[in-house]
Write a structure and sequence with these properties.
Layout: E1 18-27, H1 43-51, E2 56-67, E3 82-88, E4 91-95, H2 107-118, E5 123-132, E6 134-142, E7 148-153, E8 160-164, H3 166-173, H4 177-182, H5 196-204, E9 216-224, H6 226-236
Antiparallel strand pairs: 1-4, 1-5, 2-9, 3-4, 3-9, 5-6, 6-7, 7-8
Length: about 240
């Protein structure tokens, strides 16, 4: 099934950019679970979560299970309507090409803020890497006590913008200096050289599901909103 609603680009048009990590995780208490002990993905609950995401109008097709380490496809335009999502017990997660950005929209931050209102007791963590000639990254961590940071920009280049207080996040998580050093996080470096993705990984701790091949999500083909399609056409095509 290939939907062309809102799109002006043909389904087989080659995508200009590509994605690396591209996900948002909503971890509800308890927050100290080992990822390998998380319940199996519930596809029905994953579908409901997808349909709750701003910018997604409906799920068109269930494409079946995928490992969390399976990258989102991004070769042709029709790939951009595929998302991966999961419901592992109280944890929810989604990976979607809509989160990719070039510094003009911060879509990951916008969705994280929506999730913070929906799940005030959750630890919300997201990271997106987009390759479009250069590499653009966006990382967000929001904690139940209100501590948060959002880092967005082009690593090894300027401008790079950090909102919130990463030191408050580090303190709230109880991260020691040796834990930061072990993850190659040096907060004394220039902002564009800090390993923000590693700090996001520490925020999930042992509950981080994204490094385990055996943990599964569900792939869905979705109908994105007019605004989301417009944003993706501007980002992925010249």
């Amino acid at each position: 099934m290939t939907d062309t609603k809102y799109w002006t680009s043909a389904p087989d048009r080659t995508v200009r950019g590509s994605m690396g990590l591209c996900h948002l995780t909503v971890a509800q208490p308890p927050l100290d679970l080992d990822a390998r002990s998380l319940p199996a993905n519930d596809p029905d609950q994953a579908r409901l979560f997808v349909e709750s995401i701003d910018g997604i109008e409906e799920v068109l097709e269930d494409l079946g299970p995928r490992s969390v380490q399976t990258p989102l496809p991004s070769s042709v335009r029709s790939d951009l309507d595929i998302v991966h999502a999961a419901a592992w017990g109280g944890m929810r997660a989604i990976s979607t090409p809509v989160f990719a950005d070039d510094g003009n929209g911060n879509p990951l931050l916008a969705e994280a803020e929506r999730m913070r209102k929906r799940f005030p007791a959750a630890r919300i963590v997201g990271h997106v890497t987009y390759y479009g000639g250069m590499e653009h990254t966006e990382t967000v961590v929001m904690l139940p006590d209100g501590a948060m940071f959002h880092a967005s920009g082009w690593p090894d280049d300027e401008p790079f913008v950090v909102l919130g207080d990463p030191y408050a996040v580090i303190a709230s998580l109880g991260l020691s200096s040796w834990m930061l050093t072990a993850s190659d996080i040096d907060m004394d470096q220039p902002l564009h050289e800090v390993e923000w993705a590693s700090l996001a990984g520490l925020a999930l701790g042992h509950s981080d599901p994204w490094g385990w091949e055996e943990i599964q999500t569900t792939a869905f083909r979705v109908q994105h909103s007019d605004l989301s399609v417009c944003s993706m056409e501007g980002l992925y095509f010249v």
